Amino acid sequence: MQVATFAVTHHRFLDPSGRTVQPLPAFANDPETLRELYRAMVLTRTFDTKAIALQRSSRIGTYPSSLGQEAVAVGLAAAMTADDVLLPSFREHGAQLWRGVTPTEMFLYWGGDERGSDFAVPREDFPNSVPIGSQAPHAVGVALAMKLRRQPRAAVCVFGDGATSKGDVAEAMNMAGNWRAPVVFVISNNRWAISVPRAAQTAAATLAQKAIAAGIPGDQVDGNDVIAVRHVVGEALHAARAGGGPRVVEALTYRLSDHTTADSAKRYRDQDAVAEAWKEEPIGRLRAYLTGHGAWSDDDECQLIDESTARIDRAAEQYFAMEPAPPSAVFEYLYAALPKALEGQRDEVVQGHHHG
Amino acid sequence: MQVATFAVTHHRFLDPSGRTVQPLPAFANDPETLRELYRAMVLTRTFDTKAIALQRSSRIGTYPSSLGQEAVAVGLAAAMTADDVLLPSFREHGAQLWRGVTPTEMFLYWGGDERGSDFAVPREDFPNSVPIGSQAPHAVGVALAMKLRRQPRAAVCVFGDGATSKGDVAEAMNMAGNWRAPVVFVISNNRWAISVPRAAQTAAATLAQKAIAAGIPGDQVDGNDVIAVRHVVGEALHAARAGGGPRVVEALTYRLSDHTTADSAKRYRDQDAVAEAWKEEPIGRLRAYLTGHGAWSDDDECQLIDESTARIDRAAEQYFAMEPAPPSAVFEYLYAALPKALEGQRDEVVQGHHHG
Amino acid sequence: MAEMRIVDAINAAMARAMADDERVIVLGEDVGIDGGVFRVTDGLIRKFGADRVLDTPIAETGIAGVAVGLAAQGMRPIAEIQFLGFLYATIDQLVNHAGRLRTRTRGRLTCPLVLRAPYGGGIHALEHHSESTEAMLAHIPGVRVVIPSSPARAYGLLLAAIRDPDPVVYLEPKRIYRAGHEEVADDGAALPLDTCFVLREGRNVTLVTWGAMVVETMMAAGLLASQGIDAEVIDVATLKPIDMATIVASVRKTGRVVVVHEAALSGGLGGEIAARLAEEDGVLRGPVRRVTGYDTVVPLAKLERHYMPSISRIMTAVRETMPSEIPA
Amino acid sequence: MAEMRIVDAINAAMARAMADDERVIVLGEDVGIDGGVFRVTDGLIRKFGADRVLDTPIAETGIAGVAVGLAAQGMRPIAEIQFLGFLYATIDQLVNHAGRLRTRTRGRLTCPLVLRAPYGGGIHALEHHSESTEAMLAHIPGVRVVIPSSPARAYGLLLAAIRDPDPVVYLEPKRIYRAGHEEVADDGAALPLDTCFVLREGRNVTLVTWGAMVVETMMAAGLLASQGIDAEVIDVATLKPIDMATIVASVRKTGRVVVVHEAALSGGLGGEIAARLAEEDGVLRGPVRRVTGYDTVVPLAKLERHYMPSISRIMTAVRETMPSEIPA
Ligand SMILES: Cc1ncc(C[n+]2csc(CCOP(=O)(O)OP(=O)(O)O)c2C)c(N)n1
Ligand SMILES: Cc1ncc(C[n+]2csc(CCOP(=O)(O)OP(=O)(O)O)c2C)c(N)n1
Ligand SMILES: [Mg+2]
Ligand SMILES: [Mg+2]
């Protein structure tokens, strides 16, 4: 006797060549909205390019590029309101930029300076979570706080395909389901967890079906179609804010770069597959749609690239110009007030016993 | 576009009144096989009764009764071969008895003596796992070892409805799916995790669907129908041993007792629901079937009860008669050989500095 | 004023904090209608409702992580872990998030959570229910670890922990949950964190301890008094950061010290305390002694007594710190 | 004999153990074709196949738990955790299972696993990649904790760990993975566990350390020599259980001791070592000194140097242990 049935649905509006496969959602009928998404994706890629260059010249540390995944980050951020809270992994540069984190702050963070996570805006967003999946329960806590306070807000938690294997992610989804917490889990499925391909991460046919274990809805979206990402995450957020509980959205994309600047993907993956994946990348796809509809020109493109480059270069200069934090910063934010027991240690650092 | 669909199926042969709802599996056509299952369930209940009495008179410590859940434990054990390995939670007394753990060893364990987990038989089974769900990854390791050695064996891991919320259980199921490890996860869904009812544990409609997240099959079985448990777990084990990979079996039963002797379920659950659940309990159900088919008599019943009681009482006497372990036992099995650094501590214990 | 046992005092402190501040909520396994397996949260759900006393699924990592999220949003979660033996799954969240959220964001996000758990042996419990591994937690930067040892301190320290703007692990000595009672004023007054409590003044030797071992240590001090040895007894109370100033001042006076804890010897906090004293020039006038659990797994009930530090071991250790002219 | 760096020596030890004993298998994230993010398992999958070198999903608790299951079945799993900062999720398995399976079953089931992880700071890595929390692990009964500090010791100690019938956490000082090389004979010879290594003999002061800090400590010893101070340097190597006999014998000779470790001060293993020395009557002839990381979160790259113990801090500490007549 069948006692339960489930299905996972896949959503797409633009195919890889930028042609519509179904009527666009209402927001997409405004060309300026689409241009905004386009500009944000280009800015993200510009940031990535610069960050890699800065890493190569030792101005920042190890850096994870989001090349090819811009539609996921920008699409989900565009679906959020300022009052929502983002809990990213570490590859959502596009989402952070959209939400108002400055490229200077981001360089600061990747340069190894805690001040980079003290964003002026958005004050409630979480910093990057390096321990994979560990921010998923935080998102449930954030959402639960919103729910208990009866605020029409939601949390968005983003992590990769690899993260879906982690126990804390499963616990988080399950708890979110229990409490109908207003949280949307976005899986940025870029097909790789460092060297481990998606197929070796789990026997599950889709990652959206991780939701089924938690008794919550799970959808799949073409993660290289920024319209689809924005639409599906937007609907999920709308439902969540209205008390409809959590959802999982699996966004199918591809990590076109190395895992980080410390990685060399050639060791473990076939370059042909990467070349194939380039054909699906999100920026060209939206540009094709926009130019096809007369909403974007070569001039627009040149201007955008100039502006983006200038903005990111300026941010890098600002980053270079920052005064280094003083040694006392090592103890400054450890506790709200430094316990007496630690004053001696703080003084030792400040007095510079440490200069070996 | 639907990209994946899933279903959970429920299996039952005997209804609560002991009537067949579908043709029985082949093994069940042998009355002696069914009588064996019956006797094992009664022995289990006898053990439970005695254990509770021993706890009340302070001869053993806190004890978790399996009252009402005998069909799950006995059914899954009956489906196993001697070469399979059981990784139980702590309520599978019936499974341990079936597999050859002696009631004396079990009293020893519950009496707070490590020797109780040094079963003479079955040597490779795991001891009870008190930390909920933590034995699930062990089961994957055990199964992986079997698979790597190309042995036609399987592991059976049992845990409760509450355990399905734990991250390590999700990680284990997922890893098992990846490696097609020969392991069957049996969820003994007794509807309660201490005071938390099944509905508050997860928003999932069934617990069998936890399997979907791991990309492996998940079935539901009437856990008060020992024939169904034995059949469904048996098929899962057969598939696993033959290279078919892992499965999840959710067995629906009911915890008729308090959580443990330290608990008082009246605090948190309605006695009416418990009375309802009594109507579904497994022993009466199989007895009804057997008597209805002329395979069991009142005399058989009296004799069985006498024999079971005598056996368990004898085991208790043996337990009482055990020499206590010497103080040196505290260090004896800490490492294969006691490191030099710990010899002083061991000597201190042996010399009895400890008698306060 | 009311007669309270430790279990009552903890309950009263939570109720008081919840009444005073609606950001305070309680979550954990069975903390709702069941009132927790030790009844520590008994009645809270009746008083404050299911929105502020949340039963969770069995998911310790998740519970800790959810508490971090709640705290970052300005709530004041009190998360209960049913036993210290099941708290290990939260360490990842404690080290990687709770203890460093403030540091990482330069104070933009903070983590005012309390993680409560009963700990310690001596109640003949099941496997994994007798742990005393506070030292592992006290090594984590950015968190506090607090252990009360009397109803009044349980009350005052828990209120302080709840109001503290940083994460606090609050471990409850379950062996003495109901062991004694005293008058405790439910007046909302907190006791200071980061401060030792001198339970008994003395001139000849300092006994440093915490948690349930305060009982044996005070009894040993009484016996020592009858032998003419005047012992000072210090309850460390906050294990992270440790108020060494009070301990050093005491040992400067007595010259001798015995640290008593239930935790295993190696890597236990007795080592830290002894080391700090050994770093001070001219404070120690005899060798340090530690009376602790052994470097073994806590045995199951039948052999557990061989593990637990006893009064006689404390007495022996005190004598070993003494110059021979003092009567043994 | 071959020139090996630590990273090569670890790789060679695993290859040797796998060739010798087919029960030895390697599992972890990216240990297969990628050869691990530090290339420590490079080439093993080519030599031994995907059945013996298993890439796992991202699931640290699961990896440790699977290793326990494999070990109980008689396999000899070597599980890699990518960084110590992600090892916390395994602590539940280490405390509740790996460390006590033998005890719980009176030797019926055992747990001969090795859990490897790179640890320590100083490479300007990302958040959570610079941890040195070995003390938390060294407090766990029933496990061993081993840290090598040279290619030869990395090789010999890892072979010993793999062959040991009990669980071993083997932490690799990643800062010096490639920092130096030496001739190491790939002869399958293990080095003893539970034993300190005296790296340099001396009469005036004992410097006790482990891991990457061996480098700074040896350099300090060289500088001290040029100042007429003859330092003995001990690499503890096995942090659990600690071979105190060797350390005590050394300090009995020198009378003075400085413990150097990267881990935070409070609850670090320097405290344990100092306490043991303070417990010995008449061994210490001056105050103990510890040169350690601070009780803070390890700062990100830009401020990390303020955290790491430096040669000058070691020099200062040594002088503080010295009576004034010895030149500073
Ligand atoms: C808990 C944990 N384990 C291991 C790592 C090391 N690590 C960093 S990124 C990564 C792969 C993550 O894969 P995925 O979740 O797919 O995200 P992606 O990097 O593809 O964006 C791993 C294993 C980590 N950061 N955290
Ligand atoms: C990791 C962990 N957390 C909490 C506990 C305390 N505890 C013991 S039994 C139990 C409920 C288990 O429920 P379930 O999994 O349904 O098994 P059942 O007791 O119903 O057989 C809990 C929370 C534990 N043993 N382990
Ligand atoms: Mg990925
Ligand atoms: Mg249950």
User: Gap between N and C termini of chain A, in Å?
Assistant: 73 Å
Q: Architecture of the largest domain in chain A, CATH level 2?
A: 3-Layer(aba) Sandwich
CATH superfamily of the largest domain in chain C: Thiamin diphosphate (ThDP)-binding fold, Pyr/PP domains
Largest sheet of chain A: 6 strands, parallel
CATH domain class name of the largest domain in chain A: Alpha Beta
CATH architecture of the largest domain in chain C: 3-Layer(aba) Sandwich
Largest sheet of chain C: 7 strands, mixed
How many separate domains make up the residues of chain C? 2
Q: Structural class of the helix and strand makeup of chain C? A: alpha/beta
Number of helices of chain C: 11
Number of strands of chain C: 14
Features:
heterotetramer, A: 356 residues, alpha/beta, Rossmann fold, 2 domains, two-stranded antiparallel ribbon, 14 helices, C: 328 residues, seven-stranded mixed beta sheet, five-stranded mixed beta sheet, 33% helix, globular, binds thiamine diphosphate, binds magnesium ion
Give a description of the structure.
The complex is a heterotetramer, with 2 copies of chain A (356 residues) and 2 copies of chain C (328 residues). Chain A is of the alpha/beta class. In chain A, 44% of the residues lie in helices and 12% in strands. Chain A has helices at 31-56, 70-79, 93-99, 103-110, 136-148, 167-179, 198-201, 210-213, 226-241, 271-278, 282-292, 298-321, 329-332, 343-350, and strands spanning 2-11, 85-87, 155-160, 183-189, 192-193, 196-197, 218-222, 247-252. A 6-stranded parallel sheet of chain A has the order 1-7-8-4-3-2, with helices on both faces. Chain A has a two-stranded antiparallel ribbon with strand order 5-6. The longest helix of chain A has 26 residues, at 31-56. The N and C termini of chain A lie far apart (73 Å). The model of chain A has no long low-confidence stretch (mean pLDDT 97). Chain C is α/β, with parallel strands linked by helices and 328 residues long. Chain C folds into 2 domains: 2-184, Thiamin diphosphate (ThDP)-binding fold, Pyr/PP domains (Rossmann fold, 3-Layer(aba) Sandwich); 197-325, Rossmann fold (3-Layer(aba) Sandwich), CATH 3.40.50. Helix content of chain C is 33%, strand content 20%. Chain C is built from 11 helices and 14 strands. Chain C has helices at 6-20, 44-48, 60-72, 91-96, 101-104, 134-138, 151-163, 213-226, 244-254, 269-279, 311-321, and strands at 2-4, 24-28, 53-55, 76-80, 114-119, 144-146, 168-173, 182-184, 197-200, 205-209, 231-235, 238-240, 257-264, 289-293. Chain C has a 7-stranded mixed sheet with strand order 3-2-4-5-7-6-12, with helices on both faces. In chain C, strands 9-11-10-13-14 form a 5-stranded mixed sheet, with helices on both faces. In chain C, strands 1-8 form a two-stranded antiparallel sheet. In chain C, strand 10, helix 8 (213-226) and strand 11 (231-235) form a beta-alpha-beta unit. The chains are: A alpha/beta (356), C alpha/beta (328). Chains C and D meet through helix 4, helix 6 and helix 10 of C and helix 4, helix 6 and helix 10 of D. Bound molecules: thiamine diphosphate (2 copies) and magnesium ion (2 copies). One thiamine diphosphate sits between chains B (91, 130-132, 159-163, 190, 192-194, 255, 259) and C (29, 58, 60, 82, 86). One thiamine diphosphate sits between chains A (91, 130-132, 159-163, 190, 192-194, 255, 259) and D (29, 58, 60, 82, 86).
